[in-house]
Amino acid sequence: MNALRHCACSIVLALLCWHVAAARASDVPYVPTPMNVVDAMLALGGVGPGDYLIDLGSGDGRISIRAATRFGTRGMGVDLEAHLVNSANDDAKKQGIADKVTFAVRNLFDTDLGRATVITAYLFHSVNLRLRPLLFEQLKPGTRIVTHDFDFGDWPPDQKLTIDVPDKAYGPPRSDIMLWVIPANFAGTWQWPVAGSATHELRLEQKFQMPVGAAMAQGRPSRLGEARIKGDTVSFTLTGEAGVQRYSGRISGNVISGTVVLRDGDPPLPWRAERIKTGKINIGNMSGSINALRQVAASSPLKER
What we know:
single chain; alpha+beta; Lipocalin; 2 domains; eight-stranded antiparallel barrel; seven-stranded mixed beta sheet; 27% helix; elongated
């Protein structure tokens, strides 16, 4: 009976996977990205020779190929349309960069993104929302994500620009290009020593790259201000009776190492904080498609017990 249930569950999962994949294939029709948009995306992402770029929904491969020919960037592109993938690989061979970039027929939701230092995408808003949890799950802090026209809902971009696109295939002749940087997890309670035995304490909550919190300086409330997170770096000010202190540092595990300026005009001093209680980044309530599929399978009455 267990073997029968296992077989039936496998069939259900296969059908679900086929249905989701088929739906995704029609989610995003192929619209070539204008070349001035390609160049602007690469510039906004700071793409260079040391990067590994993964283009999701790569079409004819123009973004990855442009990065490789102009900057020597390595990477890959994935698309569901075999004829586009074949065309992209042929073009890479003709331009002598097949050793730098490759293209594969693959569902973007089944693509291992962990190697990327840059992700590019020209996908519908609904697809971006399904993709969002996987980006936080797989990408390292500091990884840049650049999209054309479509955003990630309530996850605000770190940078956005609008450029003129006279040859745009749809809508007004302009495009929004947006940059996100995957943030490290700074959430939790941090402490560091000051003069004598007193300590400073900072309690941070974090939604995406946006920190909020409260602070105590030598046992007294201190106002937290100008808090910013970008990748694995953080900066903030504490304002109390002694004036404004300016902190900046880089996280490694449960330690932040950096500098502090105790008073305006003073030289920066070394600063080190330790996290005594770890929090969690709030990335909203969106569920990734893979997790949703797993939940459907888990709730099936055909599952093994």
